[in-house]
């Protein structure tokens, strides 16, 4: 069934967009990531203008993460204190990121910057997660102890002042690294146009030693807030949010996210990390290949402004 | 005195105008099948039909054979063409050209190849064919249209052609009788919204003998129109509504799928 999108100005197949929303929603519900780094390239592939895709995906991620967050909240898998502290850093990071974005755009080569940071970030994070997941899995095979919090994990981070008790996560930690991580995610999110969940989740697990049970729900809260802000910003500044496209994506996305969240609860933590690592790594490699191999067409045409 | 001088000048001007405009032996009468294409939710492209006839008068030489060129130009926009090059092992955009106020849709139809219709000089002057249409580029501080085989220009035309937005068909115009003609104007689904100008040029023995134009518009109506205007004029409200819609959708899903 074809439907004409009022802002993107092209007709699309509703079922195709629904299916894409559901697939990405499933992944996002399962791993607690926004899925923007998957959805945006898919939409561009279907023929939607990159700017419209980025802007509309923000609201889709907001819907997906909200429905995910609600179900995690019911299972008491969200640490509200941790989320608030992360957000305080996150909002500052977003502001810094928007400022940097404007600066980079005035210098040119923003596209290249985004593509290379995608490659570096995705392959590094994906590779590390995959490797860690694999090791945990092998340890479990050999019958070794499987614990999220390994003994002797008291690193320099735990020596920092301003310690605070995060009850739901059962950790006692300085707020400094938490705010810094929030800042970093907000910054990366604004510059690269992604929610940043796939970086946040491993950072929370490996650096802050937050137990896997509360990581995903809490990361979803952060994604939700940043994406609602992003939707507003895109709507006010560029007028490029396609509400019809967003609605189709949302309906597919929230449905997928529900099943994803359920599937995520069934899978063991280390398997989940291994899978997410693989996925992130695969997308990173795909971006790298695109940069390295000779493009099919060396030329690209883009509209810069319409009048009359 | 001044009044008389003015009157004399007026007569002279009128005489000059009459002398400058040649005696029109032919007149073109044309019409498009639809002057207002509306974009509805199930819009997926359309084809318009342009038809018309060549009206002759007493001064028309007998047994003249005619050639017809139809140019359809959509709303104009600035566009940029970029070229990738390999630097440090990766492909990056290195060079670019900006095309200023070029048609977003451009179609040229004729009844036979342009070379058979007119001399290269006339083709260039009358902008017959995609190679001769004026596409202004900004090259550094200069504004110019470059030669047709310029790398950026040909890449631009080629990419627009791939999307069906630029087209050139030298057999699309059919003469039903020696003076009655028709041609189809295909509009692909991703065709831009706006006003389209149609220019019809009649040639005989390699020279332009008559010219006329008409227009049609592609407009969004109803819901599409409402969404597009709201997004543009009330960005804040639009954003709020979209964000609220996102939250509602998420909330509804969690209710629908709730397992108790």
UniProtKB/TrEMBL annotation, chain A:
A GO-annotated cellular component: plasma membrane
Family annotation (InterPro entries): TM_pro_TauE-like (IPR002781), TSUP/Inactive_protease-like (IPR051598)
Transmembrane parts of this sequence: 12-37, 43-69, 81-100, 112-131, 171-201, 213-233, 240-260, 272-293
Entry's localization field: Cell membrane; Membrane
Pfam families with a match to the protein in the record: TauE (PF01925)
Topology in the lipid bilayer: Multi-pass membrane protein
Highest taxon of the lineage: Bacteria
Keywords: Cell membrane, Membrane, Transmembrane, Transmembrane helix
Predominant location: membrane
Coiled coil: none
Family: Belongs to the 4-toluene sulfonate uptake permease (TSUP) (TC 2.A.102) family.
Name of the protein in question: Probable membrane transporter protein
UniProtKB/TrEMBL annotation, chain B:
Record keywords, A-Z: Membrane, Signal, Transmembrane, Transmembrane helix
Signal peptide: 1-25
Segments passing through the bilayer: 236-257
Pfam families, alphabetized: Alph_Pro_TM
InterPro entries linked: CHP02186-rel_TM
Designated name of the protein: TIGR02186 family protein
Organism: Bradyrhizobium retamae
């Amino acid at each position: 069934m074809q439907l004409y999108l009022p802002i993107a100005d092209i007709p699309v197949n509703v079922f195709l967009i629904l299916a894409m929303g559901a697939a990405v929603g499933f992944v996002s519900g399962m791993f607690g990531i926004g899925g923007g780094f998957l959805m945006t390239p898919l939409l561009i592939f279907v023929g939607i203008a990159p700017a419209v895709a980025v802007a509309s995906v923000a609201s889709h991620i907001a819907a997906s993460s909200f429905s995910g967050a609600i179900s995690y909240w019911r299972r008491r898998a969200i640490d509200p204190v941790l989320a608030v502290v992360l957000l305080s850093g996150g909002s500052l990071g977003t502001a810094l990121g928007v400022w940097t974005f404007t600066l980079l755009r005035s210098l040119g080569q923003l596209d290249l910057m985004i593509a290379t940071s995608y490659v570096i970030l995705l392959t590094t994070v994906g590779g590390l997660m995959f490797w860690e997941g694999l090791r945990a899995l092998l340890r479990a095979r050999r019958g070794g102890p499987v614990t999220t919090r390994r003994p002797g994990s008291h690193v320099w981070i735990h020596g920092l002042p301003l310690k605070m008790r995060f009850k739901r996560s059962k950790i006692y930690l300085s707020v400094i690294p938490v705010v810094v991580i929030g800042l970093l995610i907000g910054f990366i999110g604004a510059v690269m146009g992604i929610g940043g969940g796939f970086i946040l989740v491993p950072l929370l697990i490996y650096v802050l030693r937050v137990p896997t049970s509360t990581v995903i729900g809490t990361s979803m809260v952060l994604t939700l807030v940043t994406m609602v802000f992003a939707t507003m910003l895109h709507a006010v500044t560029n007028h490029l949010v396609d509400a019809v496209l967003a609605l189709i994506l949302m309906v597919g996305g929230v449905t997928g996210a529900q099943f994803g969240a359920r599937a995520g609860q069934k899978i063991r933590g280390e398997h989940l990390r291994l899978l997410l690592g693989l996925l992130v790594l695969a997308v990173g490699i795909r971006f790298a290949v695109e940069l390295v191999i000779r493009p099919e067409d060396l030329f690209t045409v883009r509209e810069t402004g319409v009048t009359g | 005195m001044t009044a008389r001088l003015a009157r004399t000048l007026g007569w002279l001007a009128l005489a000059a105008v009459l002398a400058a405009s040649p005696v029109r032996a032919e007149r073109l009468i044309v019409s498009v099948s639809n002057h207002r294409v509306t974009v509805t939710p199930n819009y997926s492209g359309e084809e318009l039909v342009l038809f018309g006839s060549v009206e002759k008068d007493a001064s028309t030489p007998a047994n003249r054979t005619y050639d017809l060129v139809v140019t359809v130009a959509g709303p104009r926009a600035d566009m940029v063409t970029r070229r990738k090059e390999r630097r440090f092992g990766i492909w990056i955009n290195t060079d670019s050209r900006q095309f200023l106020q070029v048609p977003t849709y451009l179609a040229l139809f004729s009844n036979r190849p342009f070379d058979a219709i007119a001399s290269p000089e006339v083709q260039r002057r009358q902008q017959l064919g995609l190679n001769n249409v004026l596409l202004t580029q900004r090259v550094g501080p200069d504004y110019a249209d470059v030669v047709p085989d310029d790398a950026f220009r040909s890449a631009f035309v080629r990419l627009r052609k791939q999307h069906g937005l630029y087209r050139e068909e030298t057999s699309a115009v059919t003469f039903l009788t020696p003076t009655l003609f028709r041609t189809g104007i295909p509009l692909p689904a991703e065709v831009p919204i706006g006003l389209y100008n149609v220019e019809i040029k009649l040639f005989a023995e390699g020279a332009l003998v008559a010219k006329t134009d008409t227009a049609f518009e592609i407009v969004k109506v109803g819901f599409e129109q409402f969404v597009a205007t709201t997004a543009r004029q009330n960005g804040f409200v639009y954003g709020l509504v979209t964000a609220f819609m996102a939250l509602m959708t998420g909330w509804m899903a969690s209710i629908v799928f709730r397992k108790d």
